[in-house]
Amino acid sequence: MRICVFLSAADLDDRYTRPARDFGRLIGKGGHSLVWGGSDTGLMKVVADGVQEAGGRLVGISVEFLANKARPGADEMVVAADLAERKRLLLERSDAVVVMVGGTGTLDEATEILELKKHGRTDKPVVLLNTAGFYDGLKQQFQRMEAEGFLPRPLAELMFFAEEPAEALGYLEAGRPAR
Fold it and tell me: 50 with 81: CB under 8 angstroms?
């Protein structure tokens, strides 16, 4: 499976780096490929290290203004002209999406895939990996959107919420519809 991971390129502490490395290792051990933003910094580096250490394949999609941060030694590295092309390529080259901790760029990527799912433009599974409760508030907001009629489809059809890396990958490997 080609698993796209949206996450931060920031250098963060162990409560975020450990699960990122663990998830990368699970991807690699499972014989899957990581499709990610291609950066060799922060959590992006950590998850890629985990995948590579476990024998998995790395497919990076960088962007021109960040190409100097692209990971050397990736199995494949594409440099997109802009962020819109980068998001398009990340989604085209993946079978599933996992949203890990991140900032505004990660939220932008996450909301784009959810908007595509909402309108039936993709059926790729989406998992929000809620490391250390990072997305508790966002999960609550999504639940409110659903309860108050802002989502035309049930939230369970749009994404699966996982608390641990193994739960996220297990969900994807089982091929279940979102709950």
Answer: no
Q: List the structure tokens of 75.
A: 């199995």
Type of residue found at 51:
V
Tell me how far apart the 2 most distant CA atoms of the chain are, in Å: 47
Q: In what order do the strands lie in the sheet with 33-36?
A: 76-80, 57-63, 33-36, 2-6, 96-99, 126-129, 160-162
Residue type, 144: R
Does the predicted TM-score (pTM) go above 0.90?
Answer: yes
Residue 107 token pair: 């939220």
Q: Do residues 137 and 148 make contact, with C-beta atoms less than 8 angstroms apart? A: no
Q: How far apart are CA 5 and CA 124, in angstroms?
A: 13
Q: What is the pLDDT of residues 144-170, one digit of tens each?
A: 999 999 999 999 999 999 999 999 999
Residue-wise pLDDT for 90-103, tens only, equals 999 999 999 999 99
Model pLDDT for residues 123-133, shown as the tens digit of each residue: 999 999 999 99
